[in-house]
Fold:
Amino acid sequence: MKNGSVLSKRVINLKPSAVMALSARAQKLKEQGVDVISLSLGEPTWDTPERICSAGIQAIKKGYTKYTPASGSQKLKEAIVINIRKWLNLNIEPSQVTVSIGAKFILFSAIQTLCDPGDEVLIPTPYWVSYPSMVELAGACLVPIPSLPEENFKLKPELLKKHITEKSKVLILNSPNNPSGAVFSRSEWEALAKVLREHPQLYVLSDDIYNHLYFSGPIAPHLLQVAPDLKDRVLAINAVSKNYSMPGWRIGWAVGHKDIISSMSKFQSQSVSCASSISQEATAYALMECDKELEETRKDLTNIKDLALKSFNAIDSLEVFPPEGAFYLWVGVKKLYGSSWKGGTINSSADFVEALFQEKSVLCVPGEEFHYPDYVRIHFAVSKQRLLTACTRIKDFISSLS
Ligand SMILES: Cc1ncc(COP(=O)(O)O)c(C=O)c1O
Structure:
């Protein structure tokens, strides 16, 4: 199309998902026969557990193939209520739950519901790639709050305090964190809760999507476990995409104050109607019956994380942050700045990623995408053999630099 003006300014300005673009590039090379190792994925590499797949098939056979309410089926909302009671020790009602198409659309719906143009949305760095575009599409202003390696990439209460203004409306927190794997402890949540109590205009979107992929127990600590008094100002957002390896089933949900929840459901009813009825049935089954699968995933993931840490720690000049959850290694590459490869000099993590991809066909994601230069994100939950091959290639690549 010649005339670009046909497109809205909103869409012209929108940044496409960089991770998806990288993955598409890797896929193209794979189709040409190149042995690409893609460690850029943001999804589990293992299959959806068999019993959950069967529940989905049964749902189709039993005729769960019609629209559900925009906020989700009663059965799934009740399963989420039981889940929240079990894991967060909170008593809520189904009217405090809304279900939609993955955590991504739930976050989008929440930001659209809470933010007017000019409102400030505070997000600690490093942060997930899609938050900025969601904030932009609501006309709100993103306020990144820096975190430091020596503070384990976690938001400090003093720094949160410093960034709050009268325009601050929403704070997005993500623990376990994508990309760093950092997890707030109970005492760190308590310290953040103190600041939140001093600023009652601030709403928290707690993105809990990796909460069962936690290496020190069945569930990562949560703000609402230590500060249940904040429950009317916190939206606990979750999905089956990562915990149950169901990204393609597209089910996510939010739990919170019923007025916010019903407004989100209204927004969802006018945009996507409802999430897949079949996936909702399978999700209700997963939440009610599949703790065993969650535990197996957690054990396997912990083993592969230990191997990844050991292998990457053995490479001089990489600074590897030990993750507490999720399935990424967050790796500092700054020590390599100034080194040369045949395509030029490495002066940024984006340069490192590009050179590694061209030289060794190993793909990871540069920290710039997470508003955090000098680091790269490496997805470690691949097979043991692929992980070790990737590690050898990265080691060889670094040795080849001059
Ligand atoms: C931190 C974070 N939040 C939300 C999402 C979106 O999840 P979903 O696939 O359920 O939309 C992702 C997916 O990569 C994520 O990493």
